[in-house]
Amino acid sequence: MHIAKAFLSVLKRDVTVAFRHRNEIFNPLLFFSLVTLLFPLGIGPSPKLLQTIAPGILWVAALLAALLAADNLFRSDYEDGTLEQLVLSPQPLSLMVTAKVLAHWLVSAVPLLLLTPLLAVSFGLDAPTIGVALLTLLLGTPVLSFVGAIGVALTVSLKRSGMLLALLVLPLYVPVLIFGSNAIDTAASGLPVNGQLYLLAAMLVLAVTLAPLAIAAALKMSVSQ
């Protein structure tokens, strides 16, 4: 019961702090919206061309928005000493960072998911394809959050670590990008997408299971420096 209460307390605290700093929510969302809306304007109104590039554009925009939001995951807690107290607390650190990553996903990725159907319409995607796009993002964005959290935990003690963070996590983002965009493209062609969805689900299970341990170890190293 104490562990569950601590988990919920960290989750509630991070969500509350995020809503007090609304730019952490709106900046990734605005970036995602601008990227996806500017491509149809720049390329032209050809429906066939827009449907062809839509999977890649949606997923690249989501990936970059996740990377943009990730840098703030542990930064403020490290600067004000909260992160050190979390490391020293008697509760399992891996569980506490899971709560922080979940809160980060709720405030950064869920608004993006809600906006995706509206943006997908501008590419001429039909309803079943939009449903698959939402499902791939629902499975893939938590993986991006957990993988990004590993990179942030490794670099949180460094100043101006944005470029290093990108170099660390972008190669790990690529499999999610490939299977997510391929699922949307396959759905647009009217073919089954079970294989891609199963792989994304497997990545999610691995991320939820293993990433918190890696994040906790990386935070202990960063805090001890």
UniProtKB/TrEMBL annotation:
It comes from the Bacteria. The keyword Repressor does not apply. It is found in: Cell inner membrane. One of its GO terms (biological process) is cytochrome complex assembly. The chain crosses the membrane at residues 25-43, 49-70, 101-124, 130-156, 163-184, 196-219. InterPro entries: Cyt_c_biogenesis_CcmB, Cyt_c_CcmB_bac. One of its GO terms (cellular component) is plasma membrane. It is a multi-pass membrane protein. GO terms for molecular function: heme transmembrane transporter activity. Keywords: Cell inner membrane, Cell membrane, Cytochrome c-type biogenesis, Membrane, Transmembrane, Transmembrane helix, Transport. Required for the export of heme to the periplasm for the biogenesis of c-type cytochromes. NCBIfam families: ccmB. Belongs to the CcmB/CycW/HelB family. This is Heme exporter protein B. It comes from Thiothrix fructosivorans. The lineage of its organism: Bacteria, Pseudomonadati, Pseudomonadota, Gammaproteobacteria, Thiotrichales.
